[in-house]
Write a structure and sequence with these properties.
By secondary structure, this protein is α/β, with parallel strands linked by helices. It has a single domain, classed as TIM Barrel (Alpha-Beta Barrel), CATH 3.20.20.70. The chain is 38% helix and 14% strand. The protein contains twelve helices and ten strands. An eight-stranded parallel beta barrel has the order 1-2-3-4-5-6-7-8, surrounded by six helices. A two-stranded antiparallel sheet has the order 9-10. Strand 3, helix 3 and strand 4 form a beta-alpha-beta unit. Helix 1 runs parallel beside helix 11 and helix 7 packs across helix 11. The N and C termini lie far apart (57 Å). Bound molecules: flavin mononucleotide.
């Protein structure tokens, strides 16, 4: 059974390629938000085994000291066509440590769902369209993660204000909402819309613990939403990247080479998506510093509390002269 009471606020620090290291995951769980990472970040099944062991050890130590430790989440590809062997090896390792939560991307999550349910794990599938949400539900997932416009990484294009209520018409289960949220007011808005968990990526990149370059973190502090380009030119699939990181890598954001196909960008030698061109979403405009994860979570909790009393719109409107 997942102990949801260990969450201090209904937030998940998103799984992010390269960025989500062991430190970020453990710091997130200790701060009371779901800590997540892509199974590809540890690079090999042996290292994945080591990470999961370390997370379980950190959990035990925290609980022994009387603290709380939020559930952790492993992110894996669901698609059966892609890296079948790698995926099977990762799933076997995740099974060994009985990960409480799994977030699947792309394809059919049925195989992962069946596996996870054997040890009591819960599976959320990441979707950007209504059709994909319907298919994931048919495959038996426990919950959905709706990735909306303005998100970092492989963002969606739909507004949460229409996407979430449309999904709620046929799905009453748990929904995670992602895209452009970086403060407690955004969390309150997401809950008001009908979300159960808010997922934040960009906010958690700019933390002391995250595993990316310091220059990436600082770029989020100095960038605005207008600096985010949603393009397929960098990764071969549409994703949000920071224009200043393109310029830093010698690319012209207004004149990017067209990709050769899906997952096949046509970048000059040595320029790597995610590694030398960095991702961030619209909420980069809300990032002003690079604090610890605990500080971010404390701030979010405080803002969420104050956001619960809605703005006095009547007073604001009557003040117009
Ligand atoms: C640098 C970066 C890497 C990401 N890598 C992954 C990934 O490996 N798997 C995944 O499911 N989502 C990935 N995402 C997307 C996040 O899980 C999440 O949907 C997104 O960051 C939410 O939007 P926000 O950045 O506006 O908070 C990534 C996002 C960023 C910014």
């Amino acid at each position: 059974m997942i102990n949801w009471n260990s969450l201090s606020i209904p937030v998940m620090a998103a799984p992010m390629f390269i960025v989500s290291n062991l430190n970020l995951v453990v710091a997130s769980c200790r701060a009371g938000v779901i800590g997540a990472f892509p199974s590809a970040n540890p690079r090999s099944p042996e290292t994945l085994d080591g990470w999961l062991h370390a997370i379980r050890e950190a959990e035990k130590e925290t609980l022994d000291q009387g603290g709380a430790f939020a559930p952790f989440c492993v992110n894996m590809l669901a698609s059966s066509a892609l890296d079948k062997e790698k995926r099977a090896a990762a799933l076997a390792t995740v099974r060994k440590h009985e990960a409480p939560l799994i977030l699947t991307n792309m394809g059919d999550p049925r195989e992962v769902v069946d596996g996870a349910h054997e040890w009591g794990g819960k599976v959320f599938h990441d979707v950007t369209t209504l059709r994909h949400a319907e298919k994931a539900i048919e495959a038996g997932v426990d919950g959905l993660m709706l990735v909306c416009a303005g998100a970092g990484g492989h963002a969606g294009t739909l507004s949460p204000f229409s996407f979430l209520p449309r999904v709620r018409k046929f799905f009453d289960g748990p929904i995670m909402l992602a895209g452009g949220i970086a403060d407690g007011h955004g969390v309150a808005a997401a809950l008001a819309l009908g979300a159960d968990i808010v997922v934040m990526g960009t906010r958690f990149i700019a933390t002391a613990e995250s595993g990316t370059f310091d220059d990436h973190k600082e770029m989020l502090v100095s960038s605005n939403s207008e600096d985010v380009l949603f393009t397929d030119a960098i990764a071969g699939l549409p994703a949000s990247f920071l224009k200043p990181s393109m310029i830093r890598a010698g690319l012209d954001p207004d004149n990017l080479p067209a990709p050769l196909g899906q997952h096949r960008p046509n970048l000059p030698e040595g320029i790597k998506p995610w590694k030398s061109v960095w991702s961030g979403g619209h909420s980069t405009a809300l990032i002003e510093d690079v604090p610890s994860v605990q500080t971010v979570v404390d701030r979010l909790a405080k803002e969420l509390d104050s956001a619960r009393s809605p703005r006095d719109w009547r007073r604001a409107l009557t003040a117009i002269r």
